[in-house]
């Protein structure tokens, strides 16, 4: 289904929602700008709503007043399911209404762009966009979160990154170094074999199968695929039964038919949560996960599976390419990231002023203030250098991972492609041959994306 049609179907499936007009003259003769996000004080993403209403709006209005401008900013909060929010935003934009500055999940950017609901920032707001000081503070790879077909549609907000976490105590038992940094997939396999020989119950945990859902794609297939120099969508074609996809599936084969991973764990409904607990209990040697694992799962005091000795026991390493230099962009190491962006409404009555608001929201001062004292990864290196200095892993993500990361394609059909990838890994984990699993995946992919002409391999 084409993105514009997919969004249209989604929109007409619900009752029409009241849409507020984009920024224009206020009753007092000045200008009113509007911001919307899926955030509401006391509810969903409350911190974002509170920052917007209590700090951002007063600060921006004050700055505009100092320039002799009468500008009022209104926040349109939401606290609903993400798909419901997405539908409301699409409806607003299709009807020529909506807020001037709009929060979007990064994975929606391509879909909204192809549907014509958002336009490149410079096309909406003019040449001032490219002169913004913030571009030099956002790594090119992170800018990719808001880029579609080579053009900038949004400013990236916070992001994350994937690494290999490992247990230093188990590594010492297996004779592996405490500062482990594999340089190839083979070195990961070799570490797994050493851990197995040392009696570690589950040497390697690489998410696989459909029970893990999108975690299989983001913490497994896609970073591995990036390590072959390929991406799931390139040049307008989706990766089918390519050699790169087969290499990824063969890596899964080595892990799960070689006794280095637990196939049953990949099939359980709560398998990912169990993998967290087992890592915390010292039963898993290496686990590929995002920084969420460090700050929310094994966090010593409030984690889901707290490790009081986390900082001493848990190590982390970059995900290597299949071989040195074989990753995307010729990289030795790779990662995957997610996150949100803020875009401009192409129907804004005052696009230049709307850009001033958007760029102010992403200034170093505003970005730092939005953290409310928490250590979280932002898109800006200058802010990260300051606020992450006390957290070694988050600092590592900011310094080492963000410059080499990649993002999922922001198209409506991607979730179905992701499921097909998950099914292919499940087949291999269950013992099916790589060639057979790759061929079955290609057949599904062709049906999903509209035929063989849209598939590489």
What would you note in describing this structure?
By secondary structure, the chain is of the alpha/beta class. The chain has 2 domains: 3-156 and 337-404, D-Maltodextrin-Binding Protein, domain 2 (3-Layer(aba) Sandwich); 162-335 and 414-456, D-Maltodextrin-Binding Protein, domain 2 (3-Layer(aba) Sandwich). The chain has 20 helices and 17 strands. It has helices spanning 3-12, 46-66, 82-94, 109-114, 121-125, 140-143, 168-173, 185-197, 214-226, 243-256, 263-267, 271-280, 291-297, 310-313, 351-361, 364-370, 381-387, 392-401, 414-429, 434-449; strands spanning 24-25, 31-37, 71-77, 101-105, 147-148, 151-152, 154-159, 162-167, 202-205, 233-234, 237-239, 284-290, 314-317, 319-320, 333-334, 339-344, 455-456. The strands form 5 sheets. Strands 1, 2, 3, 4, 7 and 16 form a 6-stranded mixed β-sheet that branches. Strands 9-12-8-13 form a 4-stranded mixed β-sheet, with helices on both faces. Strands 10-11-17 form a 3-stranded mixed β-sheet. α1 (3-12) crosses α3 (82-94) and α10 (243-256) crosses α20.
- Structurally, the number of domains stands at 2
| Uncertain stretches | 8-22
The CATH architecture of the largest domain would be: 3-Layer(aba) Sandwich
- Binned, the helix content reads 40-55%
Q: Helices and strands: which structural class?
A: alpha/beta
Give the overall average pLDDT: 93
Give a short synopsis of this structure.
The chain is α/β, with parallel strands linked by helices.
Write the layout of secondary structure elements.
Blueprint: H1 3-12, E1 24-25, E2 31-37, H2 46-66, E3 71-77, H3 82-94, E4 101-105, H4 109-114, H5 121-125, H6 140-143, E5 147-148, E6 151-152, E7 154-159, E8 162-167, H7 168-173, H8 185-197, E9 202-205, H9 214-226, E10 233-234, E11 237-239, H10 243-256, H11 263-267, H12 271-280, E12 284-290, H13 291-297, H14 310-313, E13 314-317, E14 319-320, E15 333-334, E16 339-344, H15 351-361, H16 364-370, H17 381-387, H18 392-401, H19 414-429, H20 434-449, E17 455-456
Parallel strand pairs: 2-3, 2-4, 9-12, 11-17
Antiparallel strand pairs: 1-2, 4-16, 5-6, 7-16, 8-12, 8-13, 10-11, 14-15
Helix pairs in contact: 1-3, 9-19, 10-19, 10-20, 19-20
């Amino acid at each position: 289904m084409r993105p514009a049609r997919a969004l249209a179907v989604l929109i007409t499936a619900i009752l029409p929602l009241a849409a507020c007009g984009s920024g224009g003259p206020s009753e007092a003769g000045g200008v009113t700008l509007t911001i919307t996000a899926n955030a509401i004080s006391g509810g969903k993403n409350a911190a974002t709503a509170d920052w917007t209403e209590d700090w951002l709006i007063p600060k921006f209005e004050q700055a505009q007043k100092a320039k002799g401008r009468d500008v009022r900013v209104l926040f349109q909060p939401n606290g609903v399911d993400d798909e419901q929010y997405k539908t409301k935003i699409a409806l607003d934009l299709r009807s020529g209404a909506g807020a001037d500055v709009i929060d979007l999940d990064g994975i929606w950017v391509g879909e909204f762009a192809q549907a014509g609901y958002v336009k490149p920032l410079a096309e909406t707001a003019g040449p001032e966009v490219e002169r913004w000081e913030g571009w030099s503070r956002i790594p090119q790879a992170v800018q990719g979160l808001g880029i579609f077909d080579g053009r900038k549609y949004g400013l990236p907000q916070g992001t994350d990154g994937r690494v290999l976490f490992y247990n230093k105590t188990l590594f010492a038992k297996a004779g592996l170094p405490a500062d482990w940094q594999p340089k190839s997939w083979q070195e990961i396999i070799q570490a797994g074999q050493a851990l197995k020989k040392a009696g570690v119950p589950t040497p390697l945990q690489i998410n696989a199968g459909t029970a893990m859902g999108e975690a299989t794609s983001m913490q497994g297939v896609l970073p591995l695929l990036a390590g072959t120099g390929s991406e799931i969508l390139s040049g307008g074609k989706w990766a089918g039964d390519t050699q790169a996809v087969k290499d990824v599936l063969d890596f899964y084969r080595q892990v799960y038919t070689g006794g280095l991973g637990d196939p049953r764990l990949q099939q359980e409904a709560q398998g990912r949560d169990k993998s967290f607990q087992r890592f915390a209990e010292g039963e898993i040697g290496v686990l590929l996960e995002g920084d969420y694992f460090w700050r929310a799962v094994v966090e010593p005091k409030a984690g889901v599976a707290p490790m009081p000795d986390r900082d001493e026991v848990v190590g982390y390493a970059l995900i290597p390419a299949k071989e040195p230099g074989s990753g995307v962009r010729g990289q030795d190491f790779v990662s995957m990231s997610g996150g949100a962006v803020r875009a401009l409404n192409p129907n804004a009555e005052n696009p230049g002023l709307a850009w001033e608001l958007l760029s102010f929201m992403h200034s170093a001062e505003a970005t730092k203030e939005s953290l409310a004292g928490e250590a979280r990864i932002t898109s800006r290196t200058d802010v990260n250098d300051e606020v992450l200095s006390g957290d070694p892993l988050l600092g590592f993500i900011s310094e080492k991972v963000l410059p080499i990361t990649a993002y999922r394609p922001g198209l409506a059909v991607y979730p179905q492609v992701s499921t097909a990838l998950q099914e292919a890994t499940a087949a291999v984990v269950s013992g099916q041959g790589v060639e057979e699993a790759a061929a079955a995946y290609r057949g599904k992919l062709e049906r999903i994306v509209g035929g063989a002409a849209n598939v590489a391999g």
